[in-house]
Structures are given as C-alpha cells and as structure tokens.
Specification:
The chain is α/β, with parallel strands linked by helices. It has a domain at 82-109 and 209-385: Rossmann fold, CATH 3.40.50.1100. The protein has twelve helices and 13 strands. The protein has helices at residues 38-44, 88-91, 111-124, 137-149, 164-171, 183-197, 210-224, 241-256, 277-284, 310-319, 329-343, 349-363; strands spanning 5-10, 16-17, 32-36, 82-84, 96-101, 129-133, 152-158, 175-179, 200-201, 232-236, 266-272, 323-327, 372-377. The protein has a six-stranded mixed beta sheet with strand order 4-5-13-10-11-12, sandwiched between helices. Helix 3 packs across helix 7. The longest helix has 16 residues, at 241-256. The protein is globular and about 55 Å long. It binds pyridoxal-5'-phosphate. Pyridoxal-5'-phosphate binds next to helix 4 and helix 8. Pyridoxal-5'-phosphate (PLP) is lined by residues 109, 111, 137-138, 204, 236-242, 301, 348, 350, 378-379.
Length: 386
C-alpha cells in the first residue's frame, strides 16, 4: 500500500505514540493525529499523479494509515461529484456556489469515508469487535464496513433517531441498542460494556483514523478544483471529524507543496440553534465548548451536545479565518425543500442547514458574492424521510 505514516501525535500536548499498536485517546484525553513523512511523499509523488488512479479515496494511499492491501476494507467510498449550483447560488448573488455531494457514498453519507479507513486500520491491528454511539449515519457506516471486514459491530443509538438508521444497522448484522437520551448518554452506556468485553471504541475522534478518511474530502476538492482551493467551505458540524479533517488535510497539502494559493479556505462550522455548543464557544472567545443542556434539532447528526474534539473544531474555524453559525430548525426545513426543488438534491437536513447558513452569512457580509463557495452535502435525505 505504501503508507508513509510514521507515528501518532497528540493534537493537544504533542506526545507521540506508536502507530503499530491499537490506540484511542492520548493520556491527556485529547485526540491523536496520524503523522506522515511528508518530505518523502513530496519527493516521490506530485499532485498530477493522482489523476491516473482508481476513483475512490484509496487513491491517496500514501497519505492514509493502512499498510497492507488485504486490510483495505472498501465499498467504493470517496470520489464524489462536485456540482455547480443551478439557481440557489445566483438567488443570493453567489455565482460560484458548488455542492460536494457526499450522499453518493456507500451507506449514503460521508461517514463511510471515516469508517472505511478506521475499520481497515482496526483490522490491520487485529481488532475483532468495534463499537460506537451514533446519531445515525456513523452507525450505518460502521455496521457496513464491519460486515465487509468480517467483524462484529455494536451500535448505541438514541431511541428517537429516525427508525431507518437502526433498521439499516440490523441488516448489516450489527448489535443495535436503542438508548433513552442523547448520543452522550449512549456513549456512556457503551463504555461500561466496552470495558468489560474488550471492544474497540471507534467513536468520533476517539480513535485516530476516522479523521484520516474524512480528510480525503479536502484532497478531492483540491484535485477537483485543479489544486486551487475555494475561498469558503461550509461544514454541518456535530462531532467535527469533517471540519477537523479538512483543516488537517489543508496543513498537509501545504507542507507537500501541492496547492498554489497559500491562503487557507475559510472553514465554517454550521450547527442547529437547538444544539450549538461550538457556536456559543466561538462567540464567547473560548477554546473549548460547554455541554449543551437540552439539545434539540430534527437534523439528528447535529445533535451532539459535547464533542471531544471541540478545541480542534474551534482552532480549525479560527486559524482558517472562518466562523461558526447556528440556524433554527424552521429555516433548515425551508432550506431542505429549496435544495430538493431548486437543485434536484434530496439531502440530509444537516446539509440543508449549511445552505440556510450561507444565506445568513452573505446577508451579514461574512461571505462576499464574488467568492468561490462549497457546501458539503454530508449525506442523503432518504433515511430521515419517514
Ligand atoms: C455525522 C453527520 C454530520 C456531522 O459531521 P461531523 O463531522 O461529525 O461534525 C453532518 N451531517 C450528516 C449527514 C452526518 O451524518
């Protein structure tokens, strides 16, 4: 596979860990990041080399953690289309609006990128059983890739998650537990059993490799825009692997010398008003977010009251010159219909929140009309529709 990963490094205290053993968080409690020998990679590869490779995220294999091809657990994830807006962009004066359509991934969301890489690496390290709490899509993706890898998967899900999410996990043969409460309650319940039974925890940012899968979104965007990144990218944000992965990927691309313009795209974290811990921390100038007390939004992927990577999301937003913004559910519903009717895109409501947010940001002058803007369509609307 030719992975150039060297080791793991704590994203907060900088402590290094071996990548040849199973790891979760740093002893200081922060997420670990995979590090690569980027000087070596830029010596043997140029960005043009990728255009001749297979149409999935494994085309970036040198910058991914899996060492042996037999551990690569793939369902064809990645290489999703970049679509130009037909009319919504123009309706607010933004001529260069694009949608990166992640709903075309296996299991219908961008979670498949992260879980393909995480399950592959777990398999490489000898893991037999994985578990995670989920707001919906991560569970489906984990269950699918675990089935593909011949592993057992345990999914803990709030009992008011739209019913198709649990059904999907059951089809893949996962052990599904419906939990009264939020994703944080589900996570706590899981931990008790995980410790007893020795499952591997693949919760958001609590192992190092889901973020590696997610970072390929930014690599792909770079490639699709001929290595000239856009000005602004909007990320519907829950646990934050998407936005944190994009930030990490940008720093890697810059070090590799593959992007011509050295200004980072402004990364925008979009949340729902009923659960916006990151937005509140951003507005108060804090480095970490307080837990949201009574989280509510029908966009279930955004209902994450507390994220272990909160400080990383805030750094990604601030270092890129972006912002964090919350939109209420009624505007998300309106935006949801608009994206379907005006663009032919039946998206996950989380993604519709990004369109609702863009309208506000243009109105407030945070995004200028001449800028090149990308909305990340994180998933398909199908599983939410009942
Ligand atoms: C998980 C999810 C999100 C939130 O993504 P994070 O990277 O965890 O912040 C947004 N939209 C959809 C459809 C999701 O499944």
């Amino acid at each position: 596979m030719n992975s150039y990963m060297t080791d793991l490094q704590c994203s907060r205290c900088g402590l290094r860990y071996s990548a040849e053993a199973i790891q979760n968080l740093c002893s200081c409690g922060a997420p670990l990041f995979a590090r690569y020998d980027l000087a070596e990679v830029s010596g043997i590869l140029s960005c043009e080399d990728f255009s001749h490779r297979a149409h999935d995220l494994w085309r970036f294999r040198e910058l991914l953690p899996v060492r042996l091809p037999e551990n690569m657990t793939t369902l064809g994830e990645g290489f999703t289309p970049l679509l130009s807006s037909r009319s919504l962009g123009r309706s607010i004066g933004v001529e260069s609006l694009y949608f990166k359509d992640e709903s075309l991934n296996p299991t219908g969301s961008f979670k498949s990128r992260g879980l393909s890489v995480a399950v592959s690496k777990a398999k490489e390290l000898g893991v037999r059983e994985v578990s995670l709490p989920t707001a919906g899509n991560a569970g489906g993706a984990a269950a699918a890739y675990a089935a593909r890898a011949g592993m057992k998967c345990h999914v803990f899900m709030p009992d008011d998650t739209p019913p198709l999410f649990a059904k999907e996990c059951e089809f893949y043969g996962a052990d599904v537990r419906m939990v009264k409460g939020f994703i944080t309650t589900a996570g706590n319940l899981m931990m008790t059993e995980l410790k007893e039974k020795g499952w591997f925890n693949v919760s958001t940012l609590k192992e190092p490799y889901r973020v590696e899968g997610k970072k390929t979104i930014l690599y792909e965007l770079a490639q699709q825009f001929s290595w000239q990144l856009p000005d602004v990218i909007l990320f519907p944000t829950g646990g934050g692997t998407g936005i944190v992965g994009a930030w990490k990927a940008y720093l890697e691309l810059k070090e590799l010398g593959w992007i011509s313009r050295s200004v980072m795209p402004r990364l925008i974290a979009v949340q729902a008003s009923g659960c916006a811990p990151i937005v509140e921390a951003y507005e108060k100038g804090l480095d970490a977010a307080a837990e949201c007390e009574n989280p509510y939004t029908f966009a279930s992927g955004l209902r994450v009251p507390k994220a272990v990577g909160d400080f990383l999301i805030l750094r990604a937003v601030r270092e890129s010159g972006g912002t964090a913004i919350a939109v209420p559910d009624d505007l998300i519903r309106l935006a949801w219909l608009e994206m379907s009717r005006e663009e032919g895109l039946f998206v996950a409501p989380e993604a519709a929140a990004a369109w609702a947010a863009l309208k506000q940001l243009v109105h407030a002058g945070h995004v200028e009309r001449g800028e090149k803007v990308v909305i990340l369509i994180t998933g398909s609307g199908i599983k939410y529709a009942i």
